[in-house]
């Protein structure tokens, strides 16, 4: 297994270089089968959006505003698996700085970026594909992936050295996002009827993992034939996404439609990952999402993954298991779990579904 993760099955092509070469047709290996193309589904309801939740009212006191905000978070977790948060406590200036720092990185000369080229062993660094299946149809994006926590995995040498303030900005951003992640974990825990630190403790308490994936979606001459990121659910705990404020692209599955997220100003997009689906015994669902691209303008997003400690077994929380609702998933560590996506790439929700105990079908 480990050997098969040593290297990519084919030479890596940077999507940004393809885009900048000015080609008018995309190469075949980016052309999706008809059923996966952006327009293959029922047209979306143009006004629909994921819930936008203002966290201002969330105080420790049991005020009405506080209760109604908690109820809105609860419904969003059950009905959508996704919501946007505003007034979340992270400074808008830091959000803009983080995004623009990464934009500067992606606009550096290719030789500089290539020094950080990644391998499928840890995925850390500058990458252009997920999964190592030879001949796979690829997504129209490049990315940068790095570990922020635990400290034993944090390695500045694998973080960009330029722009020269890049590492400092990532550190500052990471610190704020760990704080926000911890707060959201409390809300979810209380809403599940648990003690406020129960979910966090199930993640390993202070010893969580945290990673960043910066997605760069270059302009695409034939956006109707491909996707920037194929449909997937996030394998980790919680994802806190900083979207591109100017360019929509993220689509969330709602029943049999794809809803395009309209980002609110200085909002984060929060979504439930597979590990919380498992811990909550499917009270909360990790929902499939994908990214569409366009011919006019590039798009950049920062995904912050707030994950359980990677070597502890994750299984449905005892309080959420009953005779009526038996445990839907067997225990599995996050290390074991994420090998699937590292080998197979984004594949809808096939992994978490395949884990379900047979007696529950
Ligand atoms: O670019 C986006 O808006 C979404 C990115 C995403 O789904 C991911 O990084 O897992």
Automatic annotation (TrEMBL):
Fe2OG dioxygenase domain: residues covered: 207-308
InterPro entries the record matches: DIOX_N, IPNS-like_FE2OG_OXY, IPNS-like_sf, Oxoglu/Fe-dep_dioxygenase_dom, Plant_2OG-oxidoreductases
Keywords for this protein: Dioxygenase, Iron, Jasmonic acid signaling pathway, Metal-binding, Oxidoreductase, Plant defense
GO-annotated molecular function: dioxygenase activity; jasmonic acid hydrolase; metal ion binding
Reaction(s) the record says it catalyses: jasmonate + 2-oxoglutarate + O2 = (1R,2R)-12-hydroxyjasmonate + succinate + CO2
Biological process according to GO: defense response; negative regulation of defense response to insect; regulation of defense response to fungus; regulation of jasmonic acid mediated signaling pathway
Region: Disordered, residue numbers: 29-52
Pfam families per UniProt: 2OG-FeII_Oxy, DIOX_N
Co-factor(s): L-ascorbate; Fe(2+)
Family per record: Belongs to the iron/ascorbate-dependent oxidoreductase family.
Protein name: Fe2OG dioxygenase domain-containing protein
The organism of origin for this protein: Gossypium raimondii (Peruvian cotton)
């Amino acid at each position: 297994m480990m050997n098969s993760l040593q290297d990519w099955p084919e030479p890596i092509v940077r999507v940004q270089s393809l885009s900048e070469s000015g080609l008018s047709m995309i190469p075949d290996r980016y052309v999706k089968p008809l059923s996966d193309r952006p327009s293959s589904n029922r047209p979306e309801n143009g006004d629909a959006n994921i819930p936008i939740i203002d966290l201002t009212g969330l105080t420790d006191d049991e005020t009405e505003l506080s209760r109604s905000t908690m109820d809105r978070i609860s419904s969003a977790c059950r009905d959508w698996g996704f919501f946007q948060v505003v007034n979340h406590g992270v400074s808008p200036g830091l959000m803009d700085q983080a995004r623009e720092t990464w934009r500067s990185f992606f606009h550096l000369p290719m030789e500089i970026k290539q020094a950080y080229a990644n391998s499928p062993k840890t995925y850390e660094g500058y990458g252009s594909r997920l999964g190592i299946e030879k001949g796979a149809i690829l997504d129209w994006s490049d990315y940068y992936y790095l570990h922020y926590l635990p400290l034993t995995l944090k390695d500045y040498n694998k973080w960009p050295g330029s722009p020269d303030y890049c590492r400092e900005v990532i550190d500052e951003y990471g610190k704020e996002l760990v704080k926000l992640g911890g707060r959201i974990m409390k809300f979810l825990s209380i809403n599940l009827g648990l003690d406020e630190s129960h979910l966090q403790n199930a993640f390993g308490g202070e010893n969580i993992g945290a990673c960043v994936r910066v997605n760069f979606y270059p302009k695409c001459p034939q956006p109707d034939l491909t996707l920037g990121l194929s449909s997937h659910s996030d394998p980790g705990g919680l994802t806190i996404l900083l979207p591109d404020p100017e360019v929509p692209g993220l689509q969330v599955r709602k029943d049999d439609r794809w809803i395009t997220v309209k980002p609110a100003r200085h909002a984060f997009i929060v979504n439930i990952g597979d590990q919380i689906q498992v811990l909550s015994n499917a009270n909360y669902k990790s929902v499939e999402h994908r990214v569409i691209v366009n011919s006019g303008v590039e798009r950049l997003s920062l995904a912050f993954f707030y994950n359980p400690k990677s070597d502890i077994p994750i299984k449905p929380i005892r309080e959420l298991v009953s005779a009526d609702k038996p445990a839907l998933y067997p225990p599995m560590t996050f290390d074991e779990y994420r090998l699937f996506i590292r080998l197979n790439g984004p594949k809808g929700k096939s992994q978490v579904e395949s884990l379900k105990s047979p007696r529950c079908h």
